[in-house]
Design a protein that fits this description.
It is a single chain. The chain is 62% helix and 8% strand. With 581 residues, it is α+β, with helices and mostly antiparallel strands. The strands form 3 sheets. The protein has a 4-stranded antiparallel beta sheet, with no helix packed on it. The chain has a 4-stranded mixed beta sheet with strand order 4-3-7-10. A two-stranded antiparallel ribbon has the order 1-6. α9 crosses α14. The longest helix has 46 residues. It is globular and about 75 Å long.
Amino acid sequence: ATLESTRINITEYRQYNIYEVIMATGSAPPPREDTSLLQRNDSDYSGRGDPSLSQLSFPPHHLSSGVIKRTSVIFEPDLVGADRNSSTRISFSKSSSSEPSELASTSSVDIVSSGDDLPPGHMISSITTTSILNLVVATAGGIGMVTLPGSFAQLGWLEGTLMLLLSSAAAASSLFLLNWACNTESLKESKATTKSGNDTASSSSTSLIPSLSTSSYASLVAHTLGSTGSQTLELLTLTYCIGQVVAYLGAIGGQVHALLSSFGSTVDVTIHDCIGIVALGIMFPLSLLPEEGAMKFAGVLGTICMVYIATAVVLGDGLAALHNGGICSLDAATNSDATTSDPVAFTSSYITLMKQAPIFLFSMNASVTYVPVRYQHLTCLGKMIAGTAMAPSIAKRETTTTILSSIVAAACFYLVCSGVAYVAYCEQVPENVVDVWPLTWVPGSLARLFLAVELTMAAAGIYVPLGRAALWHLIYGPYERVATRGVTRTLVTLGLISFGAVGSILLGGALALPLAVTSALCVTAQMFILPGLCVSELLKSQSGVVGKGSILGKRLAAIGFAAFGALFGLLSLAALFGIIG
């Protein structure tokens, strides 16, 4: 039979651009096997964007007995809205006019890809760039930016640089382990779903899109290490958040006290008074606001303040040092005997190294942030390239680029800020770099104000809610949803902030000590111990598939990575509390 025209009605349109239709004939060989290319034409493609109906006309095809055994439709997905899991209902009819006639047959086919039609490179790059920026802001922003220059100065310019490089290598290794664990967990769940018969789509078209179990760091740990790992992480998260609140309140109280004194305030307030006022009068009410909006606002403020303070350090201290004579030329202004120090390459104290090293790890830690960023990155990327022949290699390339680029960018940012501060002040850089600026210097006073605002919003919008959720899960169970309002939520919030305020007052508003203790106890677990254990557990489940010798070696390496983090944390805590040295 010869069809004068073939009209295809797509009744479940999913924002795809149709490029090619190949029709294979029935049992008897046809006079010729024809493959027709359909060029995009607005006049033929009248249904673009309409989810109800899209009609496309094709040149005539010679079909034997009018029976179509297989029809493959090749699509190129749009950037947004591509749904690879749905099948498309296609109807065929015989017609010699422009109007569709009564349907002759209906067939449901699966969406497939030619493997060659990839989205433009700039679309893929834009998604990867966004993920990189998210990681850089999360890593380089916050309080690490103002505390690392002081730790850098304590070690010396060369030892500080080497410590920053080692911390960056450790952070990158942690992210690669987490990426492998997420990939393995997603593939395991995809295979389990396919075996159960719940997924009829091709595994190649869905394996790139990560599973929900890898949408957050906590979810990955819970699915990999079970309830014990989940509860341990909740306890570490609570400890980490309390440590951040203690450090943040100390820094905020110090800046508020300094700013009040610069205005000649007649009110006799101490730094302890400022900590209490900020904690109960500002941070507590802000912590009761809806969490999602507060976190977004905190992120925007953090980015603005980060850029301003970095600019003040580089342009203010850097240019001033060059104008006054070069290296350590601003040291005399902060030194009580008005003498200038000489730059030092290495510290002679192992204890000093162990005390300052946790600040470097704290500054470069991106493990917890990376998992949700990776989930969003690969979800968007998977919808664009899933089903294409180069999809696995593209996904691997983009995830590697994201990890390396974000770590290198954050390390360069820290190196520039710390290096410029060291060039200007040498060993006289304080534990909070903004404290070195006189209150009479307007840009410095603005930096103090910006820092106080940023830390207040970060504590109220990020760390108090995270600590509240961790405490809630420890009390009521890991799967209990945190209340969005109510007396219990208010009391838990008040308890966390009050505990942080008391701790900050007892430490005299110290900044570096609570950060270093938090890092040695919690960041080492986030960066080394939990990723290593997750990889080891996933490798254990593969022992029946891959050679036992290969699996054993990889498991030992993962366990060794975790053991190194645990040993480093213990030595740092011993040095900080004076147990050694």
